[in-house]
Write a structure and sequence with these properties.
Blueprint (H helix, E strand, L loop, with lengths): L11 E5 L2 H4 L12 H6 L17 H15 L3 E5 L2 H4 L9 H16 L3 E7 L5 H4 L8 H17 L5 E6 L1 H10 L14 H19 L6 E6 L3 E3 L4 H14 L27 H5 L5 E5 L4 E4 L10 E3 L15 H15 L6 E5 L17 H19 L4 E7 L18 E3 L6 E3 L1 H14 L1 H5 L1
Parallel strand pairs: 1-2, 1-11, 2-3, 3-4, 4-5, 5-7, 6-8, 7-10, 10-11
Antiparallel strand pairs: 8-9, 12-13
Helix pairs in contact: 3-5, 7-9, 8-9, 12-13, 13-14
């Protein structure tokens, strides 16, 4: 009996990127400033002092990158639309040049037989909206719906999967809670209004997209299994509270269950009708997985009601993240067991790892650690499917080495190495491995197994 995992017919294999991390061209064709442009200009915010001003220059090299996807045999490509390209000030009419870029990208993908999967918000809020409060301001949710309508009107006939938000938990916690990401606010748990207004925007945008497209609509969150970092009763209670805060706060209300009582949230920002709007039916749920999180009760009073501690006993990536493939299987099975009939089909919309990859003198870029990582995680997805979880696709993070937010260009996640001085793309060993995996899964014998 083969030990290879089995995936259902029609399973979508793809790769993912995000606009600010790869596009560059931040001042071209009428694009407005984003919060990340502003954040990167502040000294000390980015590890290597860099920005996404050029990044991978995908704005000019998108056809080359689409050809790389075609070379993989990818069936889908998850990209994000830069809100400041469409509405430079976050409101009003669409910028025709901005829409034209995504029009060209989508048509190029379809020409290669690749399904476009578009994320509307991957953290690059127009700076003009941030100047009015950003996601702390309720009006931003309505501006997001207006933007969704503009993009849906332009691309709704060709995009095959819509994702409203990427990882609202990370954008809320790191952008508004801890100040490690743009816009750099340090509100601790006072950041909850930013979470709520993102979810409200998701519900409003879902309704706007429904009027413009028949393609499925989803939301993507970062999920983490939560493990106890100590053996006390207080540590066990902290696990429940952190799971509610990180995982359930961004899923329960979307699936019609309201905010979890176990999460330490001030719900005074929630208005009548908001939860009904947030619970607009979705067609799929995106799951981003990188590693489990271990927490314990805080040692010192004040501050956050949890303390994150290292997960030990596992290999580490170049980012110093623990490599725990079984965590992905457990997560997918856990979502099914928790939400049952309320859970829509799942897509693994991000999964990947960073290592310090270099192109050798022979022109090759060997990354055996990434091959091992991806192989183990793909097997974990297969195990979840074998356990009865409805998973429809898997997207590697990322197609390209890119601008890794506060880490700048110090972390490489790509299947393809990018020389950031020249823009040269060099497919890594993992690119060839993934190409062969996709080809094997697409073969008649694999489909029939």
């Amino acid at each position: 009996m083969s030990t290879e995992p089995s995936f259902p017919a029609g399973f979508r294999w793809g790769a993912a990127t995000a606009a600010y991390q790869i596009e560059g061209a931040v001042t071209e064709d009428g694009r407005g400033a984003s919060v990340w442009d502003t954040f990167c200009a502040q000294p000390g915010r980015i590890r290597d002092g860099s920005s996404g001003a050029v990044a991978c220059d995908h704005y000019h090299r998108y056809a080359e990158d689409a050809a790389l996807l075609a070379g993989l045999g990818a069936g889908a490509y998850r990209f994000s639309v830069a809100w400041p390209r469409i509405q430079p000030t976050g409101r009003g009419a669409a910028n025709p040049a901005g829409l034209a870029f995504y029009d060209r990208l989508v048509d190029t993908l379809l020409g290669h037989g690749i399904d476009p999967a578009a994320t509307l918000f991957h953290w690059d809020l127009p700076q003009a909206l941030q100047d009015r409060g950003g996601w702390l301001d309720r009006d931003t949710a309505y501006r997001f719906a207006e933007y969704a309508d503009l993009v849906g009107r332009a691309l709704g006939d060709r995009v095959r999967l819509w994702i409203t938000l990427n990882e609202p938990v990370v954008h809320t916690m790191l952008g508004y809670g801890l100040g490690q990401h743009a816009p750099g606010e340090t509100l601790l748990l006072g950041c909850f209004p930013a979470a709520h207004h993102q979810l409200l925007g998701h519900g409003l945008a879902t309704a706007a997209l429904r009027a413009r497209t028949a393609s499925p609509v989803a939301i993507t969150n970062n999920y983490t299994p939560v493990w106890p970092g100590g053996g006390s009763a207080a540590d066990a209670a902290t696990v429940v509270a952190y799971d509610a805060l990180h995982n359930r706060t961004f899923t329960d209300p979307v699936l019609g269950l309201g905010y979890p009582a176990e999460a330490p949230l001030d719900l005074s920002v929630v208005r009548d009708g908001d939860l009904e709007t947030i619970a607009a039916p979705i067609d799929a749920l995106g799951v981003n997985y990188y590693n489990p999180t271990a927490v314990r009760a805080p040692v010192a009073p004040g501050g956050l009601p949890f303390e994150i501690v290292p997960v030990t006993g596992y290999p580490r990536t170049g980012f110093d993240w623990p490599v725990v493939p079984d965590g992905l299987r457990d997560l997918l099975v856990g979502l099914r067991d928790r939400y049952r009939d309320a859970l829509p089909p799942l897509y693994v919309t991000e999964n990947g790892c960073a290592y310090p990859d270099e192109v050798g003198p022979d022109g090759r870029c060997d990354d055996p650690e990434r091959v091992a990582y991806l192989d183990a995680h793909v097997r974990a997805v297969g195990a979840a499917i074998a356990a009865g979880v409805d998973v429809r696709g898997y997207f590697v993070w990322s197609l390209l080495d890119n601008f890794e937010w506060a880490e700048g260009y110090t972390q490489r996640f790509g299947l393809v190495h990018v020389d950031f001085a020249t823009g040269t793309r060099t497919p890594k060993t993992s690119y060839g491995w993934y190409r062969d995996l996709i080809a094997g899964q697409s073969a008649p014998s694999a489909a029939a197994s």
